[in-house]
Amino acid sequence: MTARFDTLSAWLATQRPGQTFTLKPASSDASFRRYFRATFADGATAIVMDAPPEHENCEPFVRVSGLLAAAGVHVPRVHAQDLQQGFLLLDDLGSTTYLAGLTEDKARALYLDAIDALVLIQQAAGGDSLPPYDEALLTREMNLFPEWFASRHLGKPFDHDTLTVWKDAQRLLLDAIQAQPRVLVHRDYHCRNLMVSQPNPGVLDFQDAVYGPLTYDLVSLLKDAYLEWPEEFILDMVIRYWEKARKAGLPVQADIDAFYRDFEWMGVQRHLKVAGIFARLSHRDGKHAYLDDIPLVVHYLKRTCKRYTELLPLGRLIQSLVGEDEQVGYTF
């Protein structure tokens, strides 16, 4: 075991004096954070987050946890914290993620629960105190695509003509996204960060929350980078969300077609970012398993770009990078 693990164990012992426990890995993610499950002699369990302070900051997790809990979202309570060392002691929401627990017969009920939780997240107070999901951040995210996916991963850097198409597409996406109403955005609201629990779902990994476009988390949920659903199911869930959000007083578009277009265009921005991030995780950080998830992300991109006349040049650009023509079920 490492010296940091020993330090973590010693810290936990000070939080639960006199109690013996074992610590085993619970999960890890794409960052430097690690999670351990502590099992105590009486059978109780807790999660210990290890976030090395030179790489991670625990303060946003603590702050956003409070915002979401106050809104009625099922998030792990913070029982103890040491921000200087980067340690948190949290509720254990179990070990069954949506990714592990989803079956065809359970999908509808689980996703409706996730939509209910999303509506609560978007009603959370204090969202405007979070970092803005503004044009600068949206642009930096999209630029991961030419830098890491096209140039580094595929070996196809953009030339002058390609860069012109890229800049035009970015402008279209940014204008559409910036026109959306703004709410608290979880930013990674997908099947690996939702736990099958009571009440359902348990919501994790919210420390990067921002204040930004309303459709972003819905895209994360329904056009998941790790799990694909039929388009009919996605459309049905979008409509269910739209109905619930309107009833809750959230500022969704009054016209469902306009709302769905916002949802689709937001998805293009997210999937450009995700393709770049997954390539970076492989080439910079040695986390090569993420490359297996890039084909689904590219599939979403090509399918959506073919539906909208304004996005056809971007679709052709992506096609020139990866090849493979695809059939598209719907056009708008």
TrEMBL record:
Keywords: ATP-binding, Nucleotide-binding. InterPro entries: Aminoglycoside_PTrfase, Kinase-like_dom_sf. Coiled coil: none annotated. The keyword Magnesium does not apply. Residues 22-244 form the Aminoglycoside phosphotransferase domain. It comes from the Bacteria. GO terms for molecular function: ATP binding. The keyword Nucleotide-binding applies. It holds the Pfam family APH. This is Aminoglycoside phosphotransferase domain-containing protein. It comes from Rivihabitans pingtungensis.
